[in-house]
Amino acid sequence: MKKSTLALMVLGFLASSTSSQAAEIYNKDGNKLNVYGKVKAMHYLSDDNSKDGDQTYVRFGFKGETQINDQLTGYGQWEAEFSGNKDESSSTTKTRYAFAGLKYANVGSFDYGRSLGALYDVEAWTDMFPEFGGDSSAKTDNFMTKRASGLATLRSTDFFGAIDGLNMTLQYQGKNEGRDVSKQNGDGFGSALTYDFGGSDFQLGGAYTTSDRTDAQQATTRGNGDRADAWATGVKYDANNLYVASMYSETRNMTPISGGFANKTQNFEAVIQYQFDFGLRPSLGYVQQKGKDIENIGDADLVKYIDVGATYYFNKNMSAFVDYKINQLDDNNPLGIKNDDIVALGMVYQF
C-alpha cells in the first residue's frame, strides 16, 4: 500500500532527533546555527498527589557548527528545560545538554560537556513510550547511564570508516562531587558498540561503564562498594512502520535507593509500536528493575509496570498523546516505593 504524505513525514520525524528537526536561522561562510524546541502541555491523573496535576514544560536549544577546513568541523549544542506548571516566582530552569567538540570528516567526533552517557547508546532503544519508559537503569546524573556532566566522548561511525554499520563510543567522565550523594560520581570510563549489519533494519548493541565511587557514596548504609559498574545489551527492529526493541542491563553499586544504592540490579525493558499511515502510533511496553541482595531486605522490585499508550501525529510539528502506566509493584513493597497508576494526557508542538 502506498504510504500517505503524512505517514512519510511522521516516519522521518521519528527516525530523527529533536535537534535535527531544527529551524535554520543562519548559514553563511561555513557557519550554521539551528534552533529547536517543543512545548509539552501535559496533565497527570493519579492517586499519588505528588504526581497528579499539571506537568507542562518547554524545551529550547540550539545546535551550531563551523567549517574549520575541508575535513574538520567544530560543533556545539545547548538545551534547557523551563517549567510551565509553577507560579512565576518558583518556576525552574535546568540545563539538559551543553557540549562542544570537533568532527573529522566521516571518521568520528570528540566532544566534552554535559551530554549522554555511553550506556544510553543501548538504553535509548526502549525509551520510546509516549511519556513514561526508559527508567530502569537509565537515570539522569547517575554515572554514565543517561544525561550527565563532565563527559569526554569519542564517537565513530562505521568504525572509523572501516566497517559499515558498526558504531563505537568511548567515554571518560570526570569526578563530580559537592552535590546530592545520589548524583555524585568518581572518575569513570564507558564504551558502547552498535551494529546494523551494514544498513539492515535490525540492530544489536552492547555497552559497559565502570567508575570510582565518591567517599560519600561509599559511606551510605546500602551499596558501599568502591566501584560502580554497569553493562547493557539490546536489540531493535525498525522498518515497515513497525518498531520493536528490548534491552537487558545490570548495575552494581550504582542505582539509588532508600538508604544509598542497590548492590545489584537486573533490568529489562521492551516496547512495540506501529505507525499507521493516517498518523496514529499505538505503543505497548514493559519495564522492570529488580534489586538484588539489598541490605536487610534481600531481593525486591524497584520498578515494575506495563505501559499502554498512543500518539496521534497531526503533522511533523503537532501531536497528541495518552500514556497509561499500570504499576505492578506490591502495595507493601519493602522500600516503600509508591505504586500508584498514572495516566498522562497531552499535546506537543515542536519545531
UniProtKB/TrEMBL annotation:
Q: Which Pfam families match?
A: Porin_1
Question: Where in or outside the cell is it found?
Answer: Cell outer membrane
Main location as per UniProt: membrane
| Mitochondrion listed as a keyword | no
Record-linked InterPro entries: Gram-neg_bact_OMP (IPR050298), Gram_neg_porin_domain (IPR033900), Porin_dom_sf (IPR023614), Porin_gammaproteobac (IPR001897), Porin_Gram-ve (IPR001702), Porin_Gram-ve_CS (IPR013793)
Alphabetical GO CC annotations of the entry are: cell outer membrane; pore complex
Write the signal peptide boundaries: 1-22
Identify its protein family: Belongs to the Gram-negative porin family.
NCBIfam families assigned to the protein according to its UniProt record, in alphabetical order: PRK10159.1 (NF007544)
User: What does this protein's UniProt record list under function?
Assistant: Uptake of inorganic phosphate, phosphorylated compounds, and some other negatively charged solutes.
> By its UniProt entry, which PANTHER family does this protein fall under?
OUTER MEMBRANE PORIN PHOE (PTHR34501:SF5), PROTEIN YDDL-RELATED (PTHR34501)
Q: What protein name does the entry list?
A: Outer membrane porin PhoE
Species annotation: Buttiauxella warmboldiae
